[in-house]
């Protein structure tokens, strides 16, 4: 018998806006249902409606039965008894989900006492047990801490502890790993699996990460424009999709084990719920569209083997055995002329030599005194050649952003050298700094925050042109918009009138206005849906090749890095752990930290996810104000525990520097006992599936 049965669920907001339009699914005990789709497809609204957490102005109709008991329209007092007891939800942002003025232990204990007749002391003890279960170190101490004293990964684990406190029958996970580093994400997913084993609960996993779904889910529900468009077992959906939208989603995912070349984007943007097109909502973006697609919206119909598909051409897709690459046109990116010249013969556009950036750690509200030092960047060296992309990767807090800030400031560093386009930043005067800024530009992570909402995009792009005295401003703005795949007619619109992917293209156009030689990309695609992300990645690659640009690319998505970068530098706690070509670092990682990072990346391949081995790191990143002695990674290093006492002593006492590995000219690792191993196993028979 199903734990949850959802039938024809519809959510309508004021103005007649249908955000969810007839969603139906079931969840069995111990089963994981993955719900995927682009932003605005109705994934989260569906689950909030089931939990009774939508605003009162939302009109919810249809049915959602938990163990046969109707949740839609249930009295609030009755819902309170169900929420947290029989059904629990893990939210995307745990910091806003916790009350900041109560300790973590008190909040978990409260969740226990609301649903169970238990004394205060016993509930507090249960809270400690739950924190221990989800892998939080020193749970008795951490239970007395407040939410802001936990790291992001620890807060998410504490949220899971609260969710399973009363052994619920159903867990709804709304993007539980979106804001986490890949290593912490692996830990959280492992905790979720443990929680499911402990409680036997069914799980509804809502996410845009198709790799997470491949490794977690038994069945998959694909949503578009508020409706399910495909549903079925995870292997069928991933290896044999029958709906063009599903095919496009899977084809647009950058794979860390994939081949080089252009990604397959889905052109256009999802429709607004207030203005749906006639017929199939996906038709305006679908390469397989025919006239019949505009006549009426196709229903979700059985396809055999537990499959349901909403597409009039699904049987044709099956008969011809079409793939995403067959249906969606693969962009052709022109090759770069610069890279034909050997790297050693190209000019160096950026050089960091033992660069240091420390910050004082102050204490006191009125009379401040220095109590320590934050070693944000503690001596890193790297270089970028003309026409090259160097990716800087690592967990949050490793020093990536501080490195970017030091470079962009064009100011003397506290230690070492920063040389941009042959000019030492320590020797620049204000005029030299202003002139150099033409050739050094940045694209920010959040395009909406980077663009002034009060200005038309034409004025935003024109601003640096006018600041540097360009005369042909209007013509140049039109050229730049066309260059990034937009129209010159868009110059009069405001940022709010564009989608996220279009806003990022506007940010890139502004950065290219003065024809720079070096572009700094700070997480430029992390906030985008995977279908939109593919188009921006292809655009960046094409611009680099056609304009001869060089990129310093900061990212936490290592699959994106594999597609865009030529070389990669892995940072850990203010130091470089490993550096080399993408092929060397990804195929033969030598540092234990790099190996753990790569092994933690989820692959959009269910069979590989079920069989691959992960290297899970214990704990969180140490504080940069108090880094460990010797090797900074030793406190989390899986290899450290396997070393002899003498070898460990060397790791404790002696800090390793980046040493070149014997098998490659441009591959080095900062590990006393570096050993190249293969972490990602390519799927040879993927095409056959």
From TrEMBL:
Annotated protein name in UniProt: Peptide/nickel transport system ATP-binding protein
Subcellular location: Cell membrane
Stored Pfam families: ABC_tran, oligo_HPY
Record's keyword annotation contains Transcription regulation: no
Predominant location: membrane
UniProt organism field: Nonomuraea solani
Keywords: ATP-binding, Cell membrane, Membrane, Nucleotide-binding, Transport
SUPFAM superfamilies, per database record: P-loop containing nucleoside triphosphate hydrolases
GO molecular function: ATP binding; ATP hydrolysis activity
PANTHER family from the UniProt entry: DIPEPTIDE TRANSPORT ATP-BINDING PROTEIN DPPD, OLIGOPEPTIDE TRANSPORT ATP-BINDING PROTEIN APPD
A GO term from the CC aspect: plasma membrane
Family in the record: Belongs to the ABC transporter superfamily.
BP term (GO), one: peptide transport
Domain ABC transporter: 4-250, 350-598
Membrane topology: Peripheral membrane protein
CDD domains named among the record's database cross-references: ABC_NikE_OppD_transporters (cd03257)
